[in-house]
Amino acid sequence: MTSHTFKPDMPPPSKVFGPVAWMRQNLFSSWINTLLTLFAIYLIWLVVPPLLSWAIFDANWVGTTRADCTKAGACWVFIEQRFGQFMYGYYPQALRWRVDLTVWLAIIGVAPLFIKVMPRKAIYGLSFLFIYPIVAYFLLHGGVFGLDQVATSQWGGLMLTLVIATVGIAGALPLGVVLALGRRSEMPAIRVMCVTFIEFWRGVPLITVLFMSSVMLPLFLPEGMNFDKLLRALIGVILFQSAYVAEVVRGGMQAIPKGQYEAAAAMGLGYWRRMGLVILPQALKLVIPGLVNTVIALFKDTSLVIIIGLFDLLNSVKQAAADPKWLGMATEGYVFAALVFWIFCFGMSRYSMHLERKLDTGHKR
Amino acid sequence: MKMLKSTLAVVAAAAALGLTGFAQAGAKLDAIQKKGFIQCGVSDGLPGFSVPDASGKIQGIDADFCRAVAAAVFGDATKVKFSQLNAKERFTALQSGEIDILSRNTTWTSSRDASMGLVFPGFVTYYDGVGFLANSKLGVKSAKELDGATICIQAGTTTELNVSDYFRANNLKYTPITFDTSDESAKSLESGRCDVLTSDKSQLYAQRSKLASPKDYVVLPETISKEPLGPVVARGDEDFSTIVRWVGYALLNAEEAGVTSKNVEAEAKSTKNPDVARLLGADGDYGTQLKLKKDWVVQVVKQVGNYGEMFEKNLGAGTPLEIARGQNALWNAGGIQYAPPVR
């Protein structure tokens, strides 16, 4: 008896499978695609090698002064020397551990919220939200418990950028949600107030708000009475951003079908529970991309505080580049600032994508 | 150095409305002595004038002037706190009392002196003016030879106006290229897009040191506008503005008399020169007349240096800026820095 053995399968023809096929299909499928591909390769060849040699191979990494930058490429020595200033501004060197501690507390405090099995997450999260800002304020500003006071005029660098961005968002989110609810309220007085507020703050550029808070406001106060410049800027940023958040949230609420409102009402829920338990959870989930967009925009807008003489990351870089000992190092400084901004913004946008996937309940179309 | 017209209007309007309170004579000085330090407004980063170093300490001739005032008032040059201000907010800060003295490369003009509740005490820290930075390959020795040149200008500054006035007055033709930032205009000079770059002279030196090969560029000798830069104080306290003025004059007088931070203490004890004795408080009572201590000039010169030392340390040949004294030399050395005598 002869047993029949099948021949092994032939490999698929290289024309339909494997890298070569992929390239044929995607990069060289027609003459116009071929042309575009070649052009793109040429562009990459034109830009990438000089960039790499400037930023890495020909760059100067070690040294302490401008004179140590002997090679043709970038002088990263400048960044190394001024790194502390870019991160903390003029926060006294001996006290910078307080800034570090504030950041670590935030990281450690938030971490449990990411543990899936953690019980009573909501209570923990809320209490963290209330306690942390107070702790952070006393740590950064000092003046109590034997901590030396550090005036906000000495705050700067990335630290100031983060302070403005986080305080701005933490203040603007709740205010924005309230405004959005107010704008859709059935009570005319509240509705008119909210609409006026939102339209007023959306109608002026942030730079004007900051300028007014810093240059005009002091003229209307009695002489010798000053409030803190940073506080003025923060209030301006919060009011401004809350108007944007309100409109984003309102968009989400409009997308919820009317049936949901009616169903919630039919269950006998009052206004606040109707909104808090049924409408807002759905609406906020819908507008995550919009909210993150606002957050990222705010993070980048923080550099506008340059107009009122606060020294955020970008402004610190600019100022360090004006030091006569480091003149001409502006390019390195700006590249560094761009990199830091990009890391933060990219991180935020990845996190928002993750959130969307996690909260997805199959409503996507 | 220049200010937006709109800001001027706003500030002037506010001053006209009487929103800024006018203090009584001596009130400011009393308040400063009570709080124990001087709040000094400086720029947000101008090489050689006021710029923070790696440790965050403000360096520059404008900052040193505030230290000199602190040394005169308190006998301690460290009793000064700096506020870094940009061009738009500097006058408001002074008017609202946020700062006591503005030492921020501010041009002394009649309108600023008259209309904004401010007063220039009269000491000029630095005589500046619009000049030209040219590639030495051009072979140009004077701005008069710049007929047909392409000129890089920073947009929105009074430099634009000064240059057009100068070229029209001298019947020369030129092509302006305007840029937003000084970095851009420096790069264009380097790449050859323009033949010369124009800005205030103090800036030109800073611009030159940014270039890849600073030696290939020269600052032309002409100065085509007057920009005397000096400290400003709020109106209403003659005592304080007199002190500020005389601290400046003391710095000049010390240089003129050859009193430096190194020899000032020895001179104060053993000088034979009556002028120096009066200046340093060994003879007479000139310090107390100014409501200062008798040895105020000794403290100023010992802790900050005389005018020449301040200039050399921040702007002079030993710094990357390499600015020549020029107009800022003493009157007896070819410049126009002239101080009335202490007596």
TrEMBL record, chain A:
GO terms for biological process: amino acid transport. Pfam families: BPD_transp_1 (PF00528). GO terms for molecular function: transmembrane transporter activity. InterPro entries: AA_ABC_transptr_permease_3TM, ArtM/GltK/GlnP/TcyL/YhdX-like, MetI-like, MetI-like_sf. It comes from the Bacteria. The chain crosses the membrane at residues 31-57, 95-115, 122-140, 160-182, 203-221, 233-249, 283-311, 331-349. The keyword Cell membrane applies. It is found in: Cell inner membrane; Cell membrane. Residues 158-347 form the ABC transmembrane type-1 domain. It is a multi-pass membrane protein. Its main location: membrane. PROSITE patterns: ABC_TM1. GO terms for cellular component: ATP-binding cassette (ABC) transporter complex. Keywords: Amino-acid transport, Cell membrane, Membrane, Transmembrane, Transmembrane helix, Transport. SUPFAM superfamilies: MetI-like. Belongs to the binding-protein-dependent transport system permease family. HisMQ subfamily. This is Amino acid ABC transporter permease. It comes from Pseudomonas graminis.
UniProtKB/TrEMBL annotation, chain B:
InterPro entries: Bact_solute-bind_prot3, Solute-binding_3/MltF_N. The keyword Transport applies. One of its GO terms (biological process) is amino acid transport. Residues 37-267 form the Solute-binding protein family 3/N-terminal domain. It comes from Pseudomonas graminis. Keywords: Signal, Transport. This is Amino acid ABC transporter substrate-binding protein. SUPFAM superfamilies: Periplasmic binding protein-like II. The lineage of its organism: Bacteria, Pseudomonadati, Pseudomonadota, Gammaproteobacteria, Pseudomonadales. Belongs to the bacterial solute-binding protein 3 family. Residues 1-25 form the signal peptide.
